[in-house]
Design goal:
By secondary structure, the protein is α/β, with parallel strands linked by helices. It is built from eleven helices and twelve strands. Strands 1-2-3-4-7-8-9-10-11-12 form a ten-stranded mixed sheet, with helices on one face. Helix 6 packs parallel to helix 8.
């Protein structure tokens, strides 16, 4: 083999077998290595006690294990939500969130370092996109949190920093690895992948034979308002997006979720609710209403509680199922991207 460093934690068992063959080792070791990484969550080859010392050394030299380092942990005094800032092997930082619900523990992970989608109400996009994450870097967010908390993770949402559909192949690999019977075996039905609406990728995802939930960041009832909030709307119209969603439902039979962040005076009027209901009519879907988290660098303000309740009531009147998202970790840099942003700002100040 050449001196290429391989990302073994992102590999399927068959790919690990091919690596072992190249190393002159027995292919049956692949299942043992896979189990150590994804079921027992081993941090080091030294932990893999049923492998020979020689094989462990070979693997260490050719396939070092991807591992994240915790930089910050913030724990909410309100509801126990934990927000983590992790350093990647190249020292970029990403954030992940652990939330406790009655139905189990949920982890929200990032799919990219930063984001280039430019949504006007989001802190993740303020620094632009640095790079996409590997499948192993996404897995490690879940593994690390499970080890830190000592709690089993039952639900995953890929809704942290980044646009998952722009990191399509790695996100797909992550979903298949995390749901593998040989790993943590988290049900695909308990995995939600979010997108701001990349139409070709939604159609492509419909063909992948997955049982995940697709969440669409919609945030506006018409193209004009959506363009003001989300630059992606300049590329794909709402009608194109809804058509892709109908196709996704036809292919998968999975109900869609629409995320709708309510911004005061922007998209929260009774007329907006009526228009949104018209857009979603006849589609098997659920709407998540999210009172916006104000970001200092952005102009949007949170909708009044009264407006949020009225919006939800009007959707129901038109036969659209809606839920007002329960706020989690409101006292610990709650909005997506805020913790990373404050960390980067602190780092710059300390260099001056």
């Amino acid at each position: 083999m050449d001196n290429t460093v391989l990302d073994i934690k992102s590999m399927y068992p068959e790919e690990i077998k091919a690596v072992l063959k190249e190393l002159g080792e027995k292919p049956f070791r692949a299942d043992q290595i896979f189990s150590w990484m994804h079921e027992k969550l081993a941090d080091d080859y030294a932990d893999m006690t049923n492998l020979s010392k020689a094989l462990r050394e070979k693997l260490e030299n050719t396939c070092p294990l991807t591992s994240l380092r915790m930089v910050r942990e913030e724990i909410s005094k309100v509801d126990g939500t934990r927000k983590y800032l992790f350093a990647l092997p190249d020292n970029n930082v990403i954030e992940s969130v652990w939330m406790q619900y009655k139905h189990g523990n949920s982890v929200c992970i990032s799919s990219q370092v930063g984001c280039r989608m430019g949504c006007r109400f989001c802190a993740s996009t303020l620094e632009g996109l640095v790079r996409s994450l590997t499948a192993s870097e996404m897995l490690e967010q879940v593994y690390r949190i499970q080890k830190i908390t000592g709690e089993r993770v039952s639900n995953i949402v890929i809704m942290g920093s980044g646009e998952p559909m722009e990191n399509y192949d790695n996100v797909l690999r992550f979903v298949r690895l995390i749901s593998s019977e040989k790993g943590l075996h988290i049900s695909q039905r308990n995995i939600t992948v979010s997108t701001c609406g990349l139409v070709p990728e939604i159609r492509k995802l419909a063909e992948e034979d997955l049982a995940i939930t697709l969440a669409i960041s919609l945030h506006a009832p018409n193209d004009e308002k959506r363009k003001q909030m989300m630059p992606v709307a300049n590329k794909y119209s709402i009608s194109e997006l809804i058509e892709a969603c109908r196709y996704y439902f036809e292919k998968t039979g999975r109900r869609l979720t629409f995320e709708y962040a309510l911004a005061k005076g922007q998209n929260d009027s009774p007329e907006d609710a009526a228009e949104l209901a018209g857009v979603l009519k006849g589609l098997n879907c659920h709407v998540n209403l999210i009172p916006i988290n104000p970001v200092r660098e952005r102009k949007y303000a949170r909708s009044e509680q009264e407006a949020v309740l009225a919006f939800n009531k009007r959707l129901e009147k038109y036969g659209i199922n809606g839920t007002i998202r329960r706020e989690m970790g409101s006292d610990i840099n709650g909005a997506c991207g805020q913790l990373r942003k404050s960390y980067l700002d602190d780092s710059r100040e300390n260099k001056i």
